[in-house]
Model the fold of this input.
Amino acid sequence: MIDLHLHSTFSDGSLSPEQLAREAKKANLTAAALTDHDSVSGVALFLEACAHENLRGIPGVEISVDDPRGTMHILGYFIDCQSKELNIHIEKLKNGRAARNADILKKINNLGMPLTFAEVASFAGEGNIGRLHFAQALVARGYVNTNQEAFDRYLAKGKSGYAERQRLTPRGGVEMIVNAGGLAALAHPFTLELQPDALAKLVGELADAGLQGIEIYYPQHNPNLVKKYLALAQRFNLAATGGTDFHGKAMPDIKIGRGFGSLNVPDSVLTELDNRRNNN
Done:
């Protein structure tokens, strides 16, 4: 059993890379990937900790890309974290995130909810500050009861506290990962909220750009979605990937390796990714 979608304190997770490696070992995983949002800063620590735990560690990243249809993220596996081009792009994304955070803070304050940047940053650990940290700060202040309520009322796309930020195009995100020696996979496709024909068109376009996988095994993917996404992967010759999207305390119902309890990403998923990597 493996988990190819984990977040650490270097983005919006609550566990350090070293803690993630220990918890993955406790969960009896054979391999795990660190896929922090727009950051590879924790990868070296994660790989070192995985080696210490006799667990296979996979260097990864999750890139936010610009798409008007919904939330789109591209996962990258086996990336070269020293890639100059990769780090230039990540720095641009980091700067865009900082500008967006300032806009969100201004909007939240203008809505009559006083909040300081220091309060938000206190939830971010070593990582990039994101909307989840704003949600946690809003809960701590008592403005909302849960992180989900914060998103539903203020932070989701189109809501009064939302702000856009600089992102790569979907094709650009795929190409950046490929150019850094990685394999690109479309993360949690259900968040795009696309009809089957529209999703197929998108996946076909990304496959032409170098996409190698699609995240199929995921906590929010019911058996019907898994079946549909497997057919889509077969249609476009994509590998099936999977993981929990573990964040820790911010999403306590999701456990490493098991999601809500029934997820089981088989080792064969990583075998397929290895085969594709070796044949590239």
Q: What stands out?
A: DSSP finds ten helices and seven strands in the chain. The chain has two domains: 2-82+169-279, 91-155.
